[in-house]
Amino acid sequence: MRPVIIAANWKMHTSPSDAGELARTIAARTREPHVVRVICPPFLCLAAVGEALAASDPEVAIGAQNVHHELAGAYTGEVSAPMLEGLATWVILGHSERRRDAGETDELIGRKLGRALSAGLRPIVCVGEQLQDREAGRADAVVRNQIEGIFRALEAGNEARSTVVIAYEPVWAIGTGRNASGADAAAMTGVIRAGLAAQGFVAEAEDVPVLYGGSVTSANIGEFLGEPSIDGALVGGASLKPDEMAGIVARAAITAAARLGQPAAR
Ligand code: 13P
Fold it and tell me: Residues near ligand 1 with C-beta < 6 Å?
């Protein structure tokens, strides 16, 4: 049975002076059973968030928003996987904002994936089509190609790959207030799992959690979690708002309890 995961992508928001307090507030407002919570602050805020959560709610996992594809070297301004030890246990890879602004390709994201897995970081690998792809009926093909390009180089025997999480984030839904429909997102989880199976994840493809991301709020999270094939959300703007996170995680707890065959805690 797949877990229910709510991951907060704080993007380029917060600073070391305020991130710890925000993380502590969100943790306190989202203490629900059986929901995997992850907060991904900027690199500079990882230590502050780590300290705040260690003292208040160590169950909340901490993720980075990116990692370099090499272990060390002349890469000015970059952060490698070994540097994240003790600071993060998860990492977002291939976010569309990095594809757009840093020119990340599927092949490069695949190399980052290998580094992340070797370092014991749990990756949230992002895929998603542009608006013109969806309008032209190419969304499925684009996402299938991304999965193939990212996972092509990952050896079938890599045991760490069972930790992989995918986030389906249609680019046109990110930061726009225009979310995909639950049905469309659910259809894409089928494309993603078929793509993973084609890359050798044959037995495990159905076990890989697939999250939805793109203008998720407490008001629309139910549309996604009502789909049995969707396992949670990667939340951007709303993840900086404790009220929103409280509502999102409370709704996730209902799905998590149902999956476990338990009555919801409330
Ligand atoms: P928004 O929730 O702000 O649309 O961002 C989604 C996202 O990019 C999460 O990674």
Answer: 9, 95, 169, 174-175, 213-216, 234-238
Do residues 124 and 97 touch, judged by C-beta distance below 8 A? no
* Nearest CA residue ID for atom 7, ligand 1: 236
CA distances from 57 to 31, 60, 92 (A): 9, 6, 21
Rounded to the nearest angstrom, the distance between the alpha carbon of 169 and the centre of ligand 1 is 8
Report the nearest atom of ligand 1 relative to the CA of 96.
8
**Number of the ligand 1 atom closest to the C-alpha atom of 92:** 10
Among left, alpha and beta (phi > 0; psi -120 to 50; other), residue 34 is left
For residues 147 and 103, give the distance between their C-alpha atoms in angstroms, rounded to a whole number.
Answer: 17
How do residues 159-196 score in pLDDT, each as one tens digit?
Answer: 889 999 999 999 999 999 999 999 999 999 999 999 99
Pairing status of strand 61-64 against strand 90-93: parallel
How high does pLDDT run on average in the chain? 96
In one-letter notation, the amino acid at residue 248 is I
Q: Which residues are known to be catalytic?
A: 95, 169
Q: In terms of C-beta density within 10 A (0-12 exposed, 13-18 middle, 19 or more buried), how is residue 9 classed? A: buried
